[in-house]
Amino acid sequence: MATSDLKILLVGKGAREHSLAWKLSQSPSVQHIYVVPGNGGTQDLPNVSNISHISQDDFPGLVCFARDQHIGLVVAGPDDAVVNGIAGYFEDTGIPCFSPSKAAAEIEGSKAYSKALMEKYDIPTAKYKTFSQYEDARAYLQSIDCSRVVLKVDGLAAGKGVVLPANEAEALEALRLMMVESKFGSSGQSVVIEEFLDGDEISVLTFVDGSGAFKSLPPGQDHKRIFDGNKGPNTGGMGVYAPLSFLTAQDLETIDREIIRPTLEALQAEGRPFSGMLFTGIMMTRDGPKVLEYNARFGDPETQTMMMLLAPECDLATILIACCTKKLQDVAIPVRPGFACNVVVAAGGYPESFRKGDVITVEGCPSGVEIFHAGTEKSTDGQLLTAGGSVLCAASYGSTLEEAVSLAYRGVQAVQFKDKTYRTDIASR
């Protein structure tokens, strides 16, 4: 492929996709990026266009668009696109699609499947039970210490389908909302109840090419609860920093040896070879690392931090194509030596009910900070408006963690809209 003639179709509309478009647009091989549907931030990037007349769920429509525009790479962002099998629609087109198959993506699409896979192949994880009948699950909760369990809906829930109850009453109410009230729709028809794990939670993003080759980025740490001090309900994530100084080289080797490689080998053995991005949530316990969950795509908000951590010379487009063509071993993934951080700015009331349509202003954002848009849109008169619960994030890089965090919060202060909310303790634990 000649220099600067690669056209990319990027599917999604969040801050994850904005950060991917930002980094991909810096690749010397990239001519243009089309984002379906994109947001108020992606449309302002150079050589990037939002495409609003096609739904991100219209896979046949995306295939037609890709053919018409001579797309050379498709990148799937959202979990539902990946889990619902977008890769299969491009399989016979000859267009590389950075996404695992629908079969491989079940590792994210079903908590019950992923737990059973880990149990079968001795991949370390929390003890668990799966229930498809409400009364059985209710009886089980009434027989155990509910302050030491975690309830998870089986299917996709935008990062909000996990509850850590403080007592039996909270556990039973969470179960009722999941299985009786169908708060999470069909995702809550089955529920996984597992033991609570103590330790430090980390996120590992791993590029995988389906041939057995994989390369992980430096682990980061997300902050999932809405309020400071890890209080309140779970969200899709309120901020991430990386790398993590408390992890040793031996820890990283153990994670690769006991979790990442066995997971990929297990999927291969099951006839579900994985290629794309494997995102593994891990708890570093006294007994070693244990898997909390798998995601089959770029994490959000982890990706925004990782894009800041990648070196300026890192050609992300080349890396993604290498994953699609089983050539990951042939490419380098250069990472800057310092630290990266991002802080999510959300609408008041998130993750429950929140208002949309408030005017957003961004003034005085310091150099070295990128504002990645999530729930934003442009009005007909060009104003930037809130359009979701997670509105945007301020992402930064610094030679020290303190510098990166300080820069990110200066970016947060540059963003103004009514009732904005954010955590003030990202990277402080």
Automatic annotation (TrEMBL):
Its EC number is 6.3.4.13. Pathway: Purine metabolism; IMP biosynthesis via de novo pathway; N(1)-(5-phospho-D-ribosyl)glycinamide from 5-phospho-alpha-D-ribose 1-diphosphate: step 2/2. GO terms for biological process: purine nucleobase biosynthetic process; purine nucleotide biosynthetic process. It is an enzyme of class 6 (ligase). One of its GO terms (molecular function) is phosphoribosylformylglycinamidine cyclo-ligase activity. It catalyses: 2-formamido-N(1)-(5-O-phospho-beta-D-ribosyl)acetamidine + ATP = 5-amino-1-(5-phospho-beta-D-ribosyl)imidazole + ADP + phosphate + H(+). Keywords: ATP-binding, Ligase, Manganese, Metal-binding, Nucleotide-binding, Purine biosynthesis. PROSITE patterns: ATP_GRASP (PS50975), GARS (PS00184). The keyword Chaperone does not apply. Transmembrane segments: none annotated. Residues 115-325 form the ATP-grasp domain. Coiled coil: none annotated. PANTHER family: PHOSPHORIBOSYLAMINE--GLYCINE LIGASE, PHOSPHORIBOSYLAMINE--GLYCINE LIGASE, CHLOROPLASTIC. Belongs to the GARS family. This is phosphoribosylamine--glycine ligase.
